Amino acid sequence: MSKALSVDRLREKWDKYAPRYDRDIGFVERVQFGGGREWVCSQAHGDVLDVAVGTGLNLAFYPDAVRLTGIDFSPAMLEIARTRAAELGHEIDLREGDAQALPFPDASFDTVVCTLGLCGFPDERAAITEMHRVLRPDGTLLLLDHVGSHHRLIRAGQWLLEKLTVRMLGDYQTRRPLPLVEEAGLIIQRQERLKAGMVERVAAVKPATEGS
After folding, report:
1. What letter does residue 44 receive in the DSSP assignment?
2. Is the pTM of this model over 0.85?
3. Which of 17, 90, 154, 174 has a Cα-to-Cα distance from 148 of 20 to 30 A?
4. What is any Pfam family matched here (predicted)?
């Protein structure tokens, strides 16, 4: 397994990469994640937290009525998101912070969104636990990410690629977050595997009977 990068080292790498991110991710988005952001953001409602908001690529797809907060650990990515929000005319509270220790009280949001972020957190279990914590009862967690395929040969290729991507940007190819979502106490409403099992879309709900 590739050695994980520290949060500080990851931040340095993402700050440096930020100006190229939108251009580089464009082809991958079209080929592998086409329609994924729309699927996730169209289901958001109420007070929404976008975790690992990055350069704000989700902003164009949220319903007008939602109240948006975004968090990311890269100041350079957030600066691009601010510019994008201004260009789109969207109001969003953008903050620098760590997804593994969210700076919000319990039960603060109706919806938590994370697109292409869980693959890059040093501790995805901690990040999911925090997303659960800040959700209100009956709140919705919406996820989009690349995950380890169920196909043995494809997964072997992902494992090899992961040796490079973890070293470059802390990006894991073989994670499977769904069991961690269920372990955190969320109820899966919808789960889809796409692209030979390499892409996963999840909608889950925090039970109304559960405390914050």
Report:
1. -
2. yes
3. 17
4. Methyltransf_11
Instruction: Please report which confidence band the pLDDT of residue 1 belongs to, taking 50, 70 and 90 as the band edges.
Output: very low
Tokens at 157, concatenated: 């290729």
pLDDT in tens, 79-91: 999 999 999 999 9
- Residues 143 and 145: their CA atoms lie apart, in Å, by 7
Average of per-residue pLDDT across 56-74:
97
DSSP 195: T
What is the token pair recorded at 63? 């319903």
Q: Residue 34 has what pLDDT?
A: 87
What does R_g of the chain's alpha carbons equal in angstroms? 16
